Amino acid sequence: MSRTVQVGDEAVALAARASARPGEYTVSLGERHLHVTVRVAGDGSLLVTRDDGRTFAASVSRDGTALWITAGGGTARVREAVGGRGGGSSADGGGLEAPMPGKVLRITCAPGEAVTKGQTLVIVEAMKMEHAVKAPRDGVVAEVRCKEGVLVGTGEPLIVLTEPDLPDHPSPVVAKEPTP
Amino acid sequence: MTGVPVRPIAKVLVANRGEIAIRVIEACAARGIATVAVYSEADATAAHVRAADEAVLIGPAAANESYLVTARVLDAARRTGADAIHPGYGFLSENAEFAEAVSAAGMTWIGPDAFAIRAMGTKIAARERMMAAGVPVVPGTHAAGQDLDALAAAAAEVGFPLLVKASAGGGGKGMRAVHGEAELRPALEAARREALGAFGDGALYLERLLLKPRHIEVQVFGDRHGNVVHFGERECSIQRRHQKVVEEAPSPGVDAALRARMGAAAVAAAKAVDYVGAGTVEFMLDASGEFFFLEMNTRLQVEHPVTEAVYGVDLVGLQLAVAMGAPLPMTQADIAPRGHAIEVRLYAEDPAKGFLPATGTLLRYRPSRAPGIRHDGGYIEGDAVAVHYDPMLAKLIAWGEDRQHAIGRLVRALDDWEVHGVITNLPFLLAVARHPEYRAGNLHTGFIPEHFPDGLPEPIPGEDALIAAALADAMGLGAGAGAPTGAERGAGGDPSAPWHLLGPWRGCA
Predict the structure, then answer these.
(1) How many angstroms separate the CA of residue B388 from the nearest CA in chain A?
(2) Which domain holds residue B52?
(3) CA distances from A162 to A91, A167, A174, A177, B92 (A)
(4) Cβ-based contacts under 8 A for chains A and B
(5) Less Cβ crowding at N or C end of chain B, within 10 Å?
C-alpha cells in the first residue's frame, strides 16, 4: 500500500514493505529508502528504530484520507498530495464559501448589488464569535445562497460574485483562469 | 464583623460544562461534597456529566436554551436536593438576577453577592466607582449617550486609537479596536450586535487604547468577615482578539514593589464593593510603569491555576469554605509566591486560517503527564467538538522553579500532547513558547499581531512523521476509537460484512 502526500510544496510518494524478519520494514520516502524496525505498543502507537539506532515513538489516527501523526516532537496532519492542477482557491472564482462551520447571522448584501473589495457580505457566527465574510475583489452579487439563521458547514457556498462589467453572466465556481 | 452563620454545603450543582465544571466537581468530591452536573442534549456523554454524582438534562444544544436558562438550572437544583450552586465562569457566573434567585430559593450561591456583581458588571458604573475609590482608570467615556451619533461624538473626544467595549461584556465579546474615524461606525454596529447577542444588553463605552500595555490582573479573595487578601498578579498579555491565550504568574514585568502597589489597589477595589469570594481585578500596565483599572471579574477566572501553582492554594476549595461562612485561613503576610507557572489554552481553531473555529472528532487525545504539568480538560478521546460552545478544549499549566524552567517544561509538554482529529492552536502555542521575545519576557497585548501577523502556517510533516505514515498504511494501523472511515470500509471485499465494522487489525505485528 502506498500513498502520495503533500510535504510543503512537494508531493512525496510513501511506501513501506515488510522484510522477511518480523517487525522490519523498508520505508520509501520518494527516492529515499530506509530500513527500520517497528514495535507496536499497547496503546496502538509505534516505536520505530532507524538505521542509526535512534528510536522515536509515533501515534497515528486516520481521518478520512488524511493521517494525524505525533512523532519526534509535535503533531502534523499528513494529507494526500493536492495534485498537479495548482489548486486555485475559491477566492479566484465566483463563489464565496463559509470559512468555518457556523450560523449565518446576517447577510449584508443583496442580489444585483455592486460591492467593493473588502466589503462585508455575510456575517457568520461560530462559538459565540462573529466572523465577516468579505468580498475578495470588486464585483456584483449574482446570487445569495444562504439564509440568515441557518447553520452552514465549511466550504458551503454563501454568495456568488460576478465581474463588475459582466453583470449578466455569473461566473460559476468552476470557471477559473487556466493555471500554469 | 461577627455572627456570620455557618452554612454547611452537602451537595453542589455545577451550572457549567467542560473543564471548569470538572474542576469544580473534583474540588467538591475531594471534600466529600456530592455533585450534580447539568447538561444539554449535545453534552449527554460529556466528561463533566461522567465526573458528577448525578446529572440533569436541561435542554437543547444551544446555550440560550439550556446552560443560560436560569429557571431550568434552578429546577435541576431543586429536584436533586442541591443546597448550593457553583456557576463556574461564563454562562450565568456574572448574572446578578441568577445569584439572587439562588439565594431566594434557599440555596447557597458560591460567588460574590448580587450587589458586587452588579456594581462591577456594568463596566460604566464600575469605572465611576473605582474613580471614587481612588483606583486609577483608563481615560475614556463613561457616560456617553448610547445612540451611534452620541458615541461617535464621544469618540472624537477620547481620540484614536480607541476601544469600543460592551458595558455588560467580557471575554472579548462586543469589543472592537478602532484606529481611525472610518472604522468607527462599522465597529460600533458590530460591537452592539455582538453585545446584544451575547449579553442581551447593547450598551457600549469607549476607552483610550494604550500602546504596548501589559495585561496584568490581580487575584483577590474576600470572606464574610470583612477580610480581603490578594494572591499577586497574573500576566495575560498574550491575547488574540482580546481572548487570552497564554497566562503566567508572576509577571516578568512586575517586581515586588509594584506587586504590593497593584495588590493594594486591587484590594481597595474589592473592598469598595464588599467583595466576597474569588475575584480578579484587571489592570493595564503601560511601559512607564503606570497602571490603570480595566474591570473586575466577579468570578473564578479561566487562568486561576497559575495562581494556584505559584501560591500553593486551591481557589475553588477556598470558594467553598468562604461560601460556608468560614473566615480566610490566611492573612496577607502568609501569602508569598514560589516559582513560576504558565498556562496555555488549547483552542479548536486554525492558526493557518485566521484562527477560525474548527470542529471534528478527537480521534486521539493524550496530554502530557510529566512532573510539574497540570491538565484541566473538558473533552476526552472520541468526543466530538461542535459549534455550540466556546472553542477552548483544555488548559495546560506548567510549573517550574523559575520562568525558564517553567517554559522548558511547557515546551516539552506541548511537544508530547497528542491531539488528533480536530485542528487546534497547539502548534501556535509551541511557536509562542519558543519565541525569543516570549522567552525574554518582552510581553504586551499586541504580541500576537506583532510577531504572528499571519497566524502560523500548518506544520509540515517531518521525516519521522512520514516514516510513521508509511508504516501505518503498511501495517493497517491508526483507526482508533472512532468508527472506521469510508476509505477503510471501501478497502475491498463485501462492505456489508461485519468484519468491516471492526476496523483494521491492531497489535498483531
Answers:
(1) 6
(2) 11-110
(3) 12, 6, 13, 14, 46
(4) 199
(5) N
